Amino acid sequence: MRFLIILLGSSSLLFAQGSEQAKYLLDQVSNKIEKQKNMRFEFKYVLENKEEQIRQETEGKVTLAGDRYKLDFLEVIQIFDGDKIYTIVPENEEITVSSPEESEEINVNPSQILNFYKEGYDYQWDISQRVMGRNIQFVRLIPSEENTDVKYLLLGIDVDQNTIYRLIEIGNSKTTTTLTIKNQEENISLPPGFFEFNEDDYPNYYMNN
Q: Is 190 helix (H, G, I), strand (E, B) or coil?
C-alpha cells in the first residue's frame, strides 16, 4: 500500500521522466539513421480488424539512400530518384510518373518510415518486451493534433542496436496495422544508377505522366 501511495503521488514526475526517456531514445535512433549512407530492409505488413474479421498480410522490401528509395510492395515497384516518383505496375504494364507533392496524400515516402516521428507527436514510455533475444522498448506516439484516423502509434525499438523493430498503428476505426522490419542492412554496395528510372527497362509499358 505504501508503495502504491508513493507511486500515485509521483505520477506526474514519472510521466515527465517517461516522456523525456522516450524522446531521448527516439533521438538515438534518428541520429544512427542519419549517419548511414544507405539502408535496405525487408518488412511484413499486417492489417487487421477483428470486429470485421479482416486480416491481410503481405511482405515487401525497400532500399533507401537519403530521400531516394526503391520500394517493392503489393506487386508494385516504386522508385523515387529525388525528383520524380515512378510507380510501376507490371500486371498492367503501366507506369505513373508524379512529383512528391502530387503523391503526398496517397503515398508514404518509405524514407519517412524511420524518422516520421520527429514532428506531430507527443511521446510516452510504454511496455518493454523480449522478442527473439532482442530487448524491445515501445514508445507510444500520440498525435499532437486531432486525428480522425489514428488513435495512437506504438513504435518498438531495439534498445541494444538503436533500430526500429516494429510500428503498430491503432486506428479510431478499430483497425490495427503492424509493420515489422527484418533483415536490415546498412551501408551496402549499390550499383551506379540504382535509384534512376530507365524507360528502356520497361518496353511496351504505358507511361502515365
A: coil
Phi and psi of 52, rounded to 5°? Answer: -95, 5
CB within 8 Å of 9: residues ≥ 6 apart:
none
pLDDT of residue 126: 93
| Amino acid letter for position 206 | Y
Q: How far apart are CA 194 and CA 82, in angstroms?
A: 12
Give the max Cα distance, the chain.
Answer: 75
pLDDT of the residue at 129 = 93
* Strand order through the sheet with 163-171: 121-131, 134-143, 150-158, 163-171, 176-186, 39-49, 54-65, 68-73, 76-80, 85-89, 94-98, 206-208
DSSP 83-123: S-EEEEETTTTEEEEE-HHHHTTT---GGGTTTGGGSSEEE
Is this model's pTM higher than 0.70 or not? yes
Residue 154 pLDDT exceeds 60? yes
- The type of residue at 103 is S
First to last CA, the chain: 68
Nearest to 121 by CA among 19, 5, 10: 19
pLDDT per position as a tens digit, 112-130: 766 777 778 888 999 999 9
How confident is the model at residue 157, as a pLDDT? Answer: 93
Domain 17-61+112-203 class, CATH top level: mainly beta
Type of residue found at 150: V
Nearest to 164 by CA among 108, 94, 107, 117: 117
Alpha helices in 47-162 (DSSP H): 100-103
